[in-house]
């Protein structure tokens, strides 16, 4: 079980607990449940790399305590 911190740069930081074998789509659904926005409207990225929904967190080498950027489309 890892904890990922997502910052939307508008003053909101979301902490989500998930497994490393979860996909980015699963992470989006967990964030959507906490923030109240729809999962389809969420974009997760790090610098200029936009993460795709079907790839797991372990494949992107996302570890415990890592910070990602959260954008709303």
Automatic annotation (TrEMBL):
Taxonomic superkingdom: Eukaryota
Q: Which UniProt keywords apply?
A: Ubl conjugation pathway
Record has Signal as a keyword: no
Q: Which PROSITE patterns match?
A: UBIQUITIN_2
**Where does the chain cross the membrane?**
none
Domain (Ubiquitin-like) ranges: 2-73
Q: What is this protein called?
A: Ubiquitin-like domain-containing protein
Q: Where does this protein come from, organism-wise?
A: Eragrostis curvula (weeping love grass)
């Amino acid at each position: 079980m890892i904890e990922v911190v997502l910052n939307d740069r508008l003053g909101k930081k979301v902490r989500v607990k998930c497994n490393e074998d979860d996909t980015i789509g699963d992470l989006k659904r967990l964030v959507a449940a906490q923030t109240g926005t729809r999962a389809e409207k969420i974009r997760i990225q790090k610098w200029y790399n936009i993460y795709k929904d079907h790839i797991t967190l372990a494949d992107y080498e996302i570890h415990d305590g890592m910070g990602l950027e959260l954008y709303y489309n």
